Amino acid sequence: MGIWKRTVPPETLSEQHGGTLPALLDIRFVEFGEDFARATMPVDERHIQPAGILHGGASVVLAETIGSVCGVMALEEGWTVVGLEVNANHLAPVFKGDAVEALCRPLQLGRSVQVWTIEMRRGDGRLTCVSRLTTVVRQVRGD
């Protein structure tokens, strides 16, 4: 079970995002390991900038999506996370027709703050983006 306090199949997580930005971008969760998670995103006309390459904002949506889901999955029921800061370093282009795979691992799993690192690779395995997401841990409120 590793770092995860909740068990939800990856396909269920993908379904839960129906109608939201991650679903519009076709972000799919594919694997949860002992201390990591993987998600994929195609690169098509929804994801590119005018130059025909992956828009940096789409990479940030992928990073924040997988990092936030990991944040919640690493907490007991009754707790959630809220994004505090996200950054991204874009290292290589991803062209329309390719896909990216994100690998998310924790750097810090504290009681009040979590920090996640996300590496994105294109189809040929080249590192295209490195992102870091910082979240604040909050108790779920009933209102």
Number of domains: 1
Instruction: Kindly identify the CATH topology.
Output: Thiol Ester Dehydrase, Chain A
The geometry reads as globular
The Rg value, from CA coordinates, equals 15 Å
Span between termini: 32 Å
Order of helices and strands: HHEEHEEEE
Give the second-level CATH assignment, the architecture.
Roll
Strand content: 35-45%
Largest sheet strand order: 1-2-4-5-6-3
Written description of the protein model:
- By secondary structure, the chain is of the alpha+beta class.
- The protein has one domain (10-139): Roll (Thiol Ester Dehydrase, Chain A), CATH 3.10.129.
- It has helices at residues 10-16, 21-24, 56-73, and strands at 28-32, 37-42, 79-90, 99-109, 113-122, 127-139.
- A 6-stranded antiparallel sheet has the order 1-2-4-5-6-3.
- The relative contact order is 0.20.
- Keywords: Hydrolase.
- This is Hotdog fold thioesterase.
- InterPro entries: HotDog_dom_sf, PAAI_dom, Thioestr_dom.
- GO terms for molecular function: 1,4-dihydroxy-2-naphthoyl-CoA thioesterase activity.
